[in-house]
Every structure is written in structure tokens, then in C-alpha cells.
Target: Sugar phosphate permease
Amino acid sequence: MLVSIESRASWLVALAAVAILSVSFGAPLLVVVALRPIAADLGDARAIPALASSLAYLGAGAGGILMGWLAGRSSTRLVALLGGSMVCAGLALASGGAAWQLLLGFGLLVGLLGNGALYPPMMTYVSLWFDRRRGAALALVSSGQYVAGAVWPALFERLIAAHGWQRVMLGYGLFAAATILPLAALVLRPPPAPLAGDVAVTGPARPAQVLGLAPNLALGLLALASFLCCIPMAMPAAHLVAFCGDLGIGAREGALMLSLLLSMAFLARQFWGWLSDRIGGLNTVIAGNLCQTVGMAAFLTTQDEAGLFLVAAGFGLGFSGIVPAYVMTVRELFPAREAAWRVPALLFLSLSGMAAGAWLAGFLYDRFGFYTIAWQAGIACNLAALALLGGLALRRRGAPVLSPG
Model:
């Protein structure tokens, strides 16, 4: 009989984490759905709400490093309570309607102190509850973003049409606090102690080299690849509703298309988690990037409503396993005691890439008046990421097997 730290409590914690993230990641989606009306209220410049969306991701990445460190020295519960409070405060500030309130509310409060306290620390925390099905658990937890995408855009679109984006933003902030704070207080608790000698939990001993490189250099290259591949990942998600509006497709259909994209991402992420448990994190990252490149290319060739629904669904199926597979790769290559800072450091670059992608697409649209250049730039970034990942995979083939510790 195999001895494992996994239990019903492990899956209860994972499900609570999904619920928390599915609410907290609804906050940035408000800007995505309301991008056109917000831009209209701010002088018709899409770069401002696009920047707010970018700052939310960038802040979450930067905050993850700080909050991961804090969670390692206090508790994930305490950090999550702070995060839920800050999401509420950020949306309340942003609902004021001024550009500075929007940027500060999403960048500092929703991003740095809100999702920064929830997403990266939660990924590290949940990984410590699992040793046999860690890939599946990480895929489930990280799919909280896609549960948010499946549930909220269509509802936001109707509420914004009826009540305006500022009232909806304030109301959702109160809802987020009422949901996240009780879940964090009641469910999150210290993870179980790892079994002695279990390399699946403790990770490898601290090695002199990782993939034949200095450990920090290996992490830096992985993080750079994650930055590059997350640029195109964010572009359709952040601009799909606006892109549909430019093509004469209604806001309701655009919101439904976004929900479809993220619903497919949620469903496919469970497959990618299963796959990463079998072929490893790095190979899963490469496979996901190949699928994402194909999906981005498809956006260049399709502009009718039915075709875009199909492309959006395919894009969601393809890209959704990439980020949790990066986390899986870090946990495979580095000791568990280093996860509290290595995982948030990696996710900082991942979320920074999403921030750059959301902003870059808005900037290029304002410059050229259409999204084609943005999609092409995203494909170029994806190809650069694949080149980096391919080089790391080739180095891994010749790397020695690390001993447990």
C-alpha cells in the first residue's frame, strides 16, 4: 500500500482555493468586459483600461513574491484574508471613475495586495498538500481564473448595460469580500508535514546544477520563457470583447465568446494536469505552447462570428495547461523548501507577461487601428518561448538524476 499525504482534506483545500480564485479573478474581467464604455468615459483611449488590466496582472505577480514570503513566515490563511479585503477595496476605489482611481485600484489593491496575496501563494500552498496527483491538483486550482471567465463575463455584460460599470464594480467588490473572507478563515490551515524521504513532496536535494546550469540561471530561463508565452496568452482574453465590437459583433456575443474561451480552458486544464503527471511539467509546457501558437495564428485568419466562436474555443483548449505546468516544472527541479520563493518568482514573470500582452495589444490597436499587428507580435513571442523551452528540454535529456532530500 502506497503511503501518501493526500487525503479528503487535500481536495477540500484545493476546492476552496478554486472558489476563492474564481471570485478574485472576476475583478480584472470587469475591465475586459467594460473596456469600451470605460474608454468612452475616459476620452475613448483604450490604452487606459488596457493598462489597468495589465497592472492587475503585473501587481499580482509582484505581490506574489512579497506575499509568498509573508505566507511562508506567517500563514496562507492570514495572507488570503488580506487579499480578499484588498480586492474589495481596489474595486471600490476604481469605481470612482477617474483614470488614476482605475489604475491605482487595479494595480496596487486588486493586483499587488489582492490577487498577489491569493494566486501565487495559493499555488505553492496547495502543492504542499499533494504528492501523487500534484499536477492534477495544480491544474484544478489554477483553473479558478477560467471558472471566473466562464461565469462572470456574460453576467457582467448584462449588469453593466443595466446599471453602468461603476456600480457593478462596487457591488462586485462587496460580493468578493463576502465570499473570499469566510472561505479563507474556515478552510485554509497548515499543510501536512511531508513524509520522510518522499522526493515527490520534498523535491530533489539542493543541486549544484539544474539542467546543467546554475540553479538561479535555470529558473531565470524558465521564467523568461513563461513571460514570453504569457504575452500572447493574455491578448485574446483581454481584447476579445472589444475585437468583436470592431467587427460588428455585439457586446453580448463577445462576452459569450470570452466565456466560451475560458470555459474550454477550464475543461482542458484538467486534461493538461493529468498529462503533466505522466510526461512531466517541461514537456507539457512545450506541448501547450505549440497549441497556443496555432490558436493565435487562427485569430489572424478568422473574422466572422461563427468562426471566432470556434477559434476562441480552440484557443482555450490549447493554452490552458501552460502556467500550472511551469509550476510543476519548478517543483520537479527544485527542493520543496525553496518553493515559497521560486514559484512566486516564476509566476511574477508569467503574470508580467500577461500584463505586457494586455497592454501591448491595446497600445498597438491605438497606434494602428486594428488588432492584426498585435496578434502577429504575440505569435513572435510564442516562437521565442518555444526556442528557449526546446533548448532547456535538450539539456534535460543529458542532465543527471537528482537524489531525494
